[in-house]
Amino acid sequence: MTSTLDDSEKEKARSVSVDLNNDASLLIDIPDALCERDKVKFTVHTKTTLSCFQKLDFSVPRQHEDFIWLHDTLVETEDYAGLIIPPAPPKPDFESPREKMHKLGEGEATMTKEEYSKMKQELEAEYLAVFKKTVQVHEVFLQRLSSHPILSKDRNFQIFLEYDQDLSVRRKNAKETFGSFFKNMVKSADEVIISGIKEVDDFFEQEKTFLLDYSSKIKDSTAKAEKMTRSHKNVADDYIHISATLSSLSVDDNTALKKHLEKFADLFEKLRKVEGRVASDEELKLTELLRYYMRDIQAAKDLLYRRARALADYENSNKALDKARLKSKDMAQAEEHQQQCLQKFDKLSESGKRELTSFKGRRVVAFRKNLIEMAELEIKHAKNNMALLQGCIELLKSN
Amino acid sequence: MAAEMEPPPLGNAGETDFRELEDGEDLFVSTVTTLEYPEPSSPEPASLPAEDISINSNGPKQKDVSFDDDPEDLFAEATEEVSLDSPEREPILSDGPSPAITPVTPTTMLTPRMDLGAADMFERSLDEIEEDNNGDTFDIHIAVSDPEKVGDGMNAYMGYKVTTKTSMTIFNKNETTVRRRFSDFLGLHSKLASKYLHIGYIVPPAPEKSIVGMTKVKVGKEDLSSAEFVEKRRSALERYLMRTVKHPVLLKDPDVIMFLESSELPRAVSTQALSGAGILRMVNKAADAVNKMTIKMNESDAWFEEKHQQFENLDLQLRKLHASVESLVCHRKELSVNTASFAKSAAMLGNSEDHTALSRALSQLAEVEEKIDRLHQDQAYADFYLFSELLGDYVRLITAVKSVFDQRMKTWSKWQDTQLLLQKKRESEAKLQFANKPDKLQQAKDEIKEVRSTLEGKVEQGEKDFELISKTIRKEVSRFEKERVKDFKAVIIKYLESLVQTQQQLIKYWEAFLPEAKAIA
After folding, report:
1. Closest Cα partner for A59 from A48, A49, A70, A44?
2. Is the pTM value of this prediction over 0.90?
3. Measured between beta carbons, which residues in chain B are less than 8 angstroms from residue A392?
4. DSSP SS3 for A30
5. What is the ipTM of this complex?
6. What are the CA-CA distances from residue A305 to residues A211, A359, B276 (Å)?
7. Among candidates B384, B418, B394, which has minimal Cα distance to B486?
8. Which of A57, A156, A186, B521 is most buried when burial is the number of CB atoms within 10 A of its CB?
């Protein structure tokens, strides 16, 4: 299925990160996407005034794997070691609605036609929501890059935006996949290194403590928020069944209860729509927010690892230099090596500080925006619910 | 005869006055005042903001009494539970004698047989009731409270306080309090069923047994689920008694009055499965099931055909609705648990957050979610006690209604059988007329004549019984439908009000949180 998101929806969707896509010299968006079975094909659209591009306005089709390639390439670039590389978008996952659709199909016989079609509608909406979310998260990734003073100039990024043929040629082959796997293993060893390293800088010491702790907490919160919003969805679905059965009861009833049941059934149908919206708003404003920053925090941690490794390298080079001085052998080499390590380390520290500070600012702003929006939506929906309920009570009492 | 009803004594916020809008010719209308369903002794959860509902004056007491030995209990409930696979739990007795008679119980009214006297008595009593009710207004309130565990281990049981408040003259006092145990309630129902079911009265079914629930209680597991179980049972017992006394005929039954007033009640041992009575019940049930299949009644009365079908449909729909509502209760409880879990996690996240204002906001969010968790709990409570239990009660009541229809079928069948027998005897008699054995003839003729005339009497009685049960059922169904309309109307509104409460609170909480979120700088 194709989906074209209009501007207002995109505005709502683009909520996990702020201050993106404001620079007219390079504007990126994903205006539509196509879903074929498991594969999603995104249309990446670029509008630019920069001379490094061949055209001013162009679109290319990209797959999820292309985004991953781009991300990994940036991570592996030495020059960007001091930057927080925006987290890679997660793989599109339609497993949940697909499974539910399957279960629905199995239970079709036990439901009335209306009930079944309503449940089906709900599932299709869920499917669409997953779809929209994945588009959003891929879009935000690109926009983070385009908004970054250094990353936006990356050659691979430009290729990604512009290269009008299949990128798979340039993508990972099996050998490279193993390479990245190995890198991940090394990274976990890095965690040990980080904790072990004696930090010289207060700022980084604080950041380290904060990020390590916050990372595990936000992971937990994300998981719990997910469970909570899912339960909410279940309640909304129950309302569908209740409404359908009340409807049948009302049809068969020929006592004074008939009208009551009819209105009660009608009310539940309306309530479930509101409850559904409450669940999906919570999902978007709370769960998605937490999910995104969970990944962003990981990217920040990665920066710390790289810096810690650079520090370790520097310390090793110092030891090597001392050794060389003792032996009076290869001193020039060792000195040069030490200088390089120091330079690298300093560069990382300087850029790292900048990045981490702006990261915190970004995070606080995003949380503020989303929490406010969530509270406002909750109030709106609760007021809506109340109006529906009170209206129904009035009607029933006056009967 | 539409009467304006007064609100019941235990008034809650937002109650409605009920008006009987239906045609008023029904005898029982004027006798039934507004006794709201349900009337739990505990205050409504929806109107208690965020209070822990399970701890109230009617919750199970925490004390642990020493065990007493009564080995029968363990096996009784266990076996009964396992062997019966039909959803009907009440003993539907055929016209045999009630097995519930223990020597000490004086059933002063009558023994439940197809005695010639019985039918007359009931006919008379119906007329009496018409007079009576015009004089003595229906005013009775029963509360079941203070569940207390008596004894220890597998022989323990739950004792309940039953308080009756009334101004009716059939009772000795205006207020009586007695202690009863669950099997006492079952015993009462068993007696009423054996007396009234077979003549067409819809006897409200008693709450169901539950091995799992009771075992937890017996074993002394004082956790939330056993507390919930006891509360569920207490509430069910209360509704059961109220429904029983709302029935004008049952209200006057001496067993009912004794149950409510007598300080000592003989143990209803026949409610246990392994007793002779229990086994007889099972045999009867099996026999009934077989009979039902073989009786093909020529329904001459379209009303019965129609009603029968209606109740079948209603049964199906109510069961379905009940299942959906049970699912709702389950999911809402889940939502509550998950919200609480998220709240804790958000609090930890807030503690970890190093930006001061955001940290505070996250802690506030955690608090809001905690409050909302309790809201969900309360709502789940309302979902269950208002909506789900009502449906459960009606599913069981409809079983009673259907069994009453079956009883009519049996009555008809018996009448027809007697008629067939009479026919045969007449044929034999006629044959004898033409037989050529003069010496034996007169004796045989006399014998057959006697049998025949007895049978004629029986056939007449059978027809009368059939007509009577048909008439009673019509009245009962009409009364049942009125009650159903009232109950559902009342509960729907109450339930909606509980939902309104929840939404009101939600608005309050989120509106309090909003400035906190805005304060993040």
Report:
1. A44
2. no
3. 496
4. strand
5. 0.88
6. 11, 16, 79
7. B394
8. A156
Please check whether residue A304 is in contact with residue A208, taking contact to mean a CB–CB distance below 8 angstroms: yes
Beta bridge partners of residue A59, listed in sequence order: A45
Whole-angstrom Cα Rg for chain B: 28
- Closest CA in chain B for residue A241: B324
For residue A83, give the 3-state DSSP assignment.
Answer: coil
Smallest Cβ distance to A376: which of B318, B325, B514? B514
Would you give the DSSP letter of residue B54?
Answer: T
A235: which chain B residues are within 8 Å (Cβ-Cβ)? 328, 331-332, 335
The per-residue b/e assignment along A9-40, b for 16 or more CB within 10 angstroms, e otherwise, is ebeebbbbbeebbeeeebbbbbbebebeeeeb
What domains can be seen in chain A, in order of their start residue?
A: 18-169 (3.30.1520.10), 214-398 (1.20.1270.60)
Residues 6+ apart with CB under 8 A from B140: B164, B165, B166, B168, B171, B245, B251
Name the amino acid, one letter, at A326.
Answer: L
| Distance (Å, whole) CA B315 – CA A89 | 52
Q: How far is CA B469 from the centre of its chain?
A: 22
Q: Angle, to 10 degrees, between the axis of helix B438-518 and the axis of helix B356-382? A: 160
Contact A235 B341 (CB under 8 A): no
A249:B325 CB<8 A: no
Compute the distance between CA of residue A370 and CA of residue B476 in angstroms, rounded to an integer: 60
Please say whether the dihedral angle defined by the alpha carbons of residues B324, B332, B242 and B131, taken in this order, is positive or negative.
negative
Residue B392, token pair as written in the block: 């459960």
CB A275, CB A232: distance < 8 Å: yes
Q: Tell me, rounded to whole angstroms, the distance of Cα B454 from its chain centroid.
A: 40
For residues B454 and B425, what is the distance between their CA atoms, to the nearest angstrom? 11
Torsion of CA A97, A101, A107, A113, to 10 degrees: 110
Collapsing DSSP to helix, strand or coil, A330 comes out as: coil
Residues B116-175 have pLDDT tens digits of 333 344 444 444 444 444 456 788 999 999 988 888 877 888 899 999 999 888 888 889
What are residue A39's DSSP bridge partners? A36
Transcribe B68-118 into DSSP letters: ---THHHHHHHHHHHH--SS--S----SS--TT--TT----S--SS--HHH
Do A356 and A321 form a contact (C-beta atoms < 8 A)?
Answer: no
Query: From CA B501, how far away is CA B382, in angstroms rounded?
Result: 11
CA distances (Å), B259 to each of B101, B163, B178, in order?
Answer: 15, 11, 8
| Number of Cβ atoms within 10 Å of the Cβ of A394 | 10
Q: What residues have CB less than 8 Å from B379, skipping those under 6 apart?
A: B46, B332, B498, B499, B502
Q: How far apart are CA B122 and CA A109, in angstroms?
A: 47
- Smallest CA-to-CA distance from A354 within A42, A43, A84, A2 is with A84
Strands (E) in chain A, as ranges, are 2-4, 26-36, 39-48, 57-63
Instruction: Give the model confidence (pLDDT) of A195-230 as tens digits.
Output: 666 777 888 888 988 999 999 999 999 999 999 999
Split at pLDDT 50, 70, 90, the class of A190 is low
Q: Residue B210's pLDDT band (boundaries 50, 70, 90)?
A: confident
Which of A224, A261, A389 has its CB closest to that of B338?
Answer: A224
Determine the Cα–Cα distance for residues A322 and A316; give it in Å rounded to an integer: 10
Interface of B with A in 334-353 (CB under 8 A): 334-335, 338-339, 341-342, 344-346, 348-349, 352-353
Kindly determine whether residue A221 and residue B342, on different chains, have CB atoms separated by under 8 Å.
yes
| Contact by Cβ (8 Å): A82, A303 | yes
Taking the Cβ of residue B354 and every Cβ of chain A, the question of whether any pair is shorter than 8 Å is answered with yes
